[in-house]
Amino acid sequence: MLVPIANVISALVFTFIGIFIFVLAFIIMDKLTPYHLWKEIVQEHNMALAILVGAMSIGICIIIASAIH
């Protein structure tokens, strides 16, 4: 076998932990803002807010990846 099964399981566990932490951080970020982020971005087409949320998401993902690595 080329890849040990323990490495694959570890990668999957860390992937799900990272995704869970990201979703939790996005929910917290959504609760801290005075409006609903998804509604504001999708229905109201607020491009500035979309760029801000995207930048914050990338920052959170970099922090999560560094912590897991």
Give the N-to-C terminal Cα separation.
Answer: 24 Å
Multimeric status of the protein: single chain
Order of helices and strands: HHH
Query: Roughly what percent helix?
Result: over 70%
Content of β-strand? under 5%
Number of strands: 0
The tally of helices reads 3
Low confidence ranges: none
Major sheet characteristics:
none
Shape: elongated
Structural class: mainly alpha
The gyration radius over C-alpha positions equals: 16 Å
Mean pLDDT: 88
Write the layout of secondary structure elements.
Elements: H1 5-32, H2 37-42, H3 47-68
Can you characterise this structure?
The protein is mainly α. It has a domain at 32-59. Helices cover 81% and strands 0% of the residues. It is built from three helices and no strands. It has helices at residues 5-32, 37-42, 47-68.
Key structural traits:
single chain; mainly alpha; 3 helices; 81% helix
Question: Nutshell version of this structure?
Answer:
Helices cover 81% and strands 0% of the residues. It has 69 residues and is mostly helical. The protein has a domain of 28 residues.
